[in-house]
Write a structure and sequence with these properties.
The protein has about 280 residues and is mainly alpha-helical. About 75% of the residues lie in helices and about 0% in strands. It has eleven helices and two strands, in the order ααββααααααααα. Helix 3 runs parallel beside helix 6, helix 7 runs antiparallel to helix 8 and helix 8 packs antiparallel against helix 11. The two termini are about 30 Å apart.
Length: about 280
């Protein structure tokens, strides 16, 4: 390795360390300020008098919103990716579809929230509800799911498809039994990225799902639902007491822990699937 390569390596290593330090500072700041608010009462009680009480409805509401979002976006996104990767001809129309999917990923969330408010809440009559919020979040993460799934499908070697077809399998059987099984880890990674974006989204949820301070659990998908990001936003912008400050960071810490827990669980499942798929051999 010459001096120039050593310099580039040292520069890249430094930037990686800086990124890591910034991440630890942010998480550490939230942890230090929020850990004091964490208690069983805070996790299991409902909020009252604005900053008093706990965040149990907000935890359940965030999980419900993510479930509705994934239930809508994952099947639609994976099916779209299968069509784009396996069936769509390589022409301008397909390129245009991919271009607009990428553009949709860059639309500001407040615009998607406004669309959800006008179309889902008012036009379709779903009201401010879990269904409106989940569907709007699904629209937001749909491009991420499509692009990640398509790229994962494209990475499956063509030889796998040819071998399956040579054994007499139809194209649909090949996609279901060979391509999707091999692309599954990449698809899960894309879903995780979308889920993280949905779990931490504020603007879309504020306009379509509820005020964030709901003190009740939803009994149906048509009920308003509280969520942790909106709860944090409301207390951070309108709470001016030490209790509001502590609750804001406590809820932020719970939101981070929630996302990490779901991500670790999904990654463990993914790694177990890869291990089973490869028979324990390293890929």
């Amino acid at each position: 390795m010459n001096n120039k390569e050593k310099l580039v390596t040292a520069g890249l290593c430094t930037t990686a360390l800086i990124s890591l330090v910034i991440l630890f500072i942010v998480v550490g700041y939230i942890f230090v300020n929020g850990i004091g608010a964490i208690s069983l009462e805070f996790l299991l009680e409902s909020p009252y008098r604005f900053e008093q009480g706990g965040i149990f409805p907000q935890i359940i509401g965030s999980l419900c919103l993510v479930c509705v979002c994934l239930f809508f976006a994952v099947p639609l996104g994976v099916a779209s990716a299968i069509y784009l990767a396996e069936y769509a001809p390589d022409n301008r129309l397909t390129s245009s579809v991919r271009f607009f999917v990428e553009c949709l990923a860059g639309i500001p969330s407040i615009v998607i929230g406004l669309f959800g408010l006008i179309f889902l809440v008012y036009y379709l009559g779903f009201g401010i509800s879990m269904l409106s919020g989940g569907l709007a979040l699904g629209v937001m993460i749909l491009p991420w799911t499509v692009r990640a799934s398509e790229e994962a499908i494209k990475t499956v070697p063509q030889a796998y498809r040819e071998a399956s077809l040579a054994l007499g399998a139809t194209k649909l059987q090949t996609i279901r039994s060979v391509v999707l099984k091999s692309a599954y880890p990449g698809i899960i990674t894309g879903v995780l990225l979308g889920m993280g974006k949905a779990l931490g989204e504020t603007a879309v949820v504020l306009l379509t799902a509820g005020s964030g301070l709901e003190s009740f659990l939803p009994r149906s998908v048509f009920d308003p639902v509280g969520s942790l990001p909106v709860y944090v936003y409301m207390l951070a912008t309108q709470g001016h007491t030490s209790a509001a400050f502590a609750a804001t960071f406590g809820a932020s810490l719970v939101l981070i822990a929630l996302f990490l827990s779901i991500s670790v669980f999904a990654l463990v499942l993914r790694n177990r699937y890869i291990k089973r798929l490869t028979g324990g051999r390293r890929s």
